[in-house]
Each structure stands twice: as structure tokens, then as C-alpha cells.
Specification:
Layout: H1 22-37, H2 42-45, H3 70-74, H4 77-109, H5 118-144, H6 153-165, H7 168-189, H8 197-225, H9 230-250, H10 255-259, H11 264-273, H12 275-294, H13 300-308
Helix pairs in contact: 1-5, 1-8, 4-5, 4-6, 4-7, 5-8, 7-8, 7-9, 7-12, 9-13
The structure holds fe (ii) ion (2 copies).
């Protein structure tokens, strides 16, 4: 168990009122160096004027929520193309929503922290990355003709509460869940030969920059939980799992099926019951689940929630 192998923290100067060690700051320093070496400006990196390749999917068909269902086999090729474009657009819109939440949480977390520390500087670098990502996803959706798919009122308000209240390991746990789930999908999207160039390009940028964000989030979670008691760990475990539940169930909006001319109720039911979909979710969560287990964040209650959304 990694969390039992705790060091005696050597506190760094500069007003970090918690277990922030010199080793923690080294992680941030390396991430800053990496960001200086390899970062992208999507405004110039992507050819925004290129026409969409006709017949290309929005995401690899295997990542479609309906792939492998009876409904999928009845659909025309044209419907599959439209559906996958709306699905990827819906995931990107959810991405923007989540990036807004995490920018606020990180900004709040760094309030009045030492500007000389690598942690502070990397946190601000991450916010700048997310800001560019959201604009990039917004442009990609516009280009694909995908409307804004908003979460329902209840979920929207839950997100508002989470971003106003979540701190420490809860904030970075929510961030990590969203980033991990998206990462696995985008690694396939960026290599998909029959996937739109605009999706491949935006995915490549996102995968590269988010790999640093995930390292940062994991480090922050380890640091905040160092020496934490059972109750605090249990609460964090449940809060992060609840965040995961909301993220995973909100990713693809049911209206994408209407856009593809499908019966929404039937599509939702078949997607929900799809064994292929469940297997994809489990595969994409494997790495995240291993990290949560290592840090004592797979408790009975959180495991139940992860099973319900097929992340376990
Ligand atoms: Fe991002
Ligand atoms: Fe990120």
C-alpha cells in the first residue's frame, strides 16, 4: 500500500500550510520543464480552414455508444457518421464544462500560495492549457456543426456546488477522473484512420498536455492524503466516485441520437445495456482504478458506484 509508505515531510519554505515537501516541488519542476519543451497552440497547430473529410467519423466507431448493438447494425453509414460526430462533440462540450470547473478549483486552491514555488507555476500553466483546450474544443464543435449539449439542471447545479466547495484531494480527484477517462479514448481517436483530422489533431494536443496534468493531479492527491485518517480518506473516496458518476453519465447527451435520426428512447436503452460499451469503460478505467486502490480510495461505497457505471 503506497499510502502507508509515508515519509517525514521536509516542509518547503514559502507558506505552504501542509505536507508540501521538496520532493513534491521537484515533480512540479519537471512538469514545468516538460511544458516548456512541448506545448501547443491549437490556433496555429490545427488547420481550421480545411474542409471536413466526407465519410469520416467523429470518433472510432468502437467508441460509439451504440457500437455492437442491434440498432447500430440497422443504421445507415450516413447515420453512423453523423452520430459519431455528435457523440465526439458532446464529449468535447462536457470537456469544456469540466475544464471550467477545474480551472476554478485549481485557481481557488492556489490562492495566495507562494508564486516562487514550482507547484504554483505549474498550476497556473495548467489553467492556461485548459483555457486553450476549451477554445479548441469549442472551435471543433462549431466546425462539425454540433450544438451545445448541456448537462441537465440538476447536474449543472451539482457541478456548480462541486467547483465552489471541493478542495484538496477531492478537487484533484475529480480532475484526475475526468482526465483519465478522456485520455484513453483520445489515444484511439488520434490514431483513427477513418476519424476526422480535426478530432485527431485536437486529441493529439490534448493527450500530450493532459499527461502532465494527470501526473500533477496524482502528486497533489498523494500529498494531500499523506497522513490522512480513515474517515478523511473514506470521504474523499466517496466524493471522487460521485464525481466520476456524474462525469461518466453526462458525457454523451441523449440528443445526439435525435441528431442522427434515431429513436432516442431505444438508443438510450441499447447504449445502457451494451456489453461492448461496458467493456470499453472498464478498460479505460483500469489505470485510474489501480491508482485509487494504491491510495486507499477504493472503499466499499466507492466501489459500488464505480461498478454501477462499469468503471470496475
Ligand atoms: Fe484539457
Ligand atoms: Fe487537464
Amino acid at each position: 500500500m503506497a499510502h502507508s509508505a509515508e515519509r517525514t515531510p521536509t516542509l518547503t519554505p514559502g507558506g505552504h500550510g501542509r505536507n508540501h515537501t521538496a520532493a513534491d516541488d521537484d515533480v512540479s519542476k519537471r512538469l514545468l520543464d516538460s511544458a516548456a519543451t512541448l506545448s501547443y497552440d491549437p490556433a496555429t497547430e490545427i488547420d481550421w480552414d480545411a474542409p471536413l473529410e466526407p465519410g469520416h467519423y467523429g470518433l472510432n466507431p468502437e467508441w460509439s455508444t451504440l457500437y455492437g448493438t442491434a440498432l447500430w447494425s440497422e443504421m445507415t453509414e450516413e447515420q453512423r457518421v453523423v452520430l459519431t460526430r455528435h457523440e465526439v462533440g458532446s464529449i468535447m462540450t462536457t470537456g469544456i464544462w469540466f475544464e471550467m470547473i477545474l480551472q476554478q478549483m485549481v485557481l481557488r486552491d492556489q490562492y495566495l500560495k507562494d508564486p516562487a514555488s514550482a507547484e504554483f507555476r505549474f498550476a497556473l500553466t495548467e489553467i492556461a492549457d485548459e483555457c486553450r483546450h476549451s477554445i479548441m474544443f469549442a472551435r471543433a464543435c462549431e466546425k462539425m456543426g454540433v450544438p451545445q449539449y448541456k448537462p441537465n439542471q440538476l447536474v449543472a447545479q451539482a457541478g456548480r456546488a462541486y467547483k465552489a466547495l471541493a478542495r484538496g484531494e477531492l478537487a484533484y480527484g475529480g480532475i484526475l477522473v475526468a482526465e483519465e477517462v478522456l485520455d484513453v479514448m483520445q489515444r484511439d481517436w488520434m490514431r483513427g484512420e477513418n476519424v476526422l483530422d480535426i478530432v485527431r489533431g485536437t486529441s493529439r494536443i490534448h493527450v500530450v498536455e493532459e499527461s502532465r496534468h494527470m501526473k500533477f493531479a496524482r502528486q497533489e492527491i498523494r500529498e494531500r492524503l499523506r497522513g490522512a485518517g480513515t474517515l478523511r480518506r473514506r470521504n474523499a473516496a466517496f466524493g471522487i466516485a460521485a464525481g466520476a458518476y456524474v462525469i461518466v453519465t453526462s458525457m454523451v447527451h441523449p440528443s445526439v441520437y435525435k441528431a442522427a435520426g434515431l429513436d432516442v428512447a431505444r438508443a438510450v436503452a441499447e447504449a445502457r445495456a451494451s456489453e461492448h460499451r461496458r467493456a470499453m469503460m472498464r478498460t479505460s478505467s483500469r489505470h485510474l482504478m489501480a491508482f485509487l486502490a494504491e491510495n486507499g480510495l477504493l472503499t466499499g461505497a466507492s466501489t459500488t458506484l464505480y461498478r454501477r457505471i462499469h468503471m470496475l
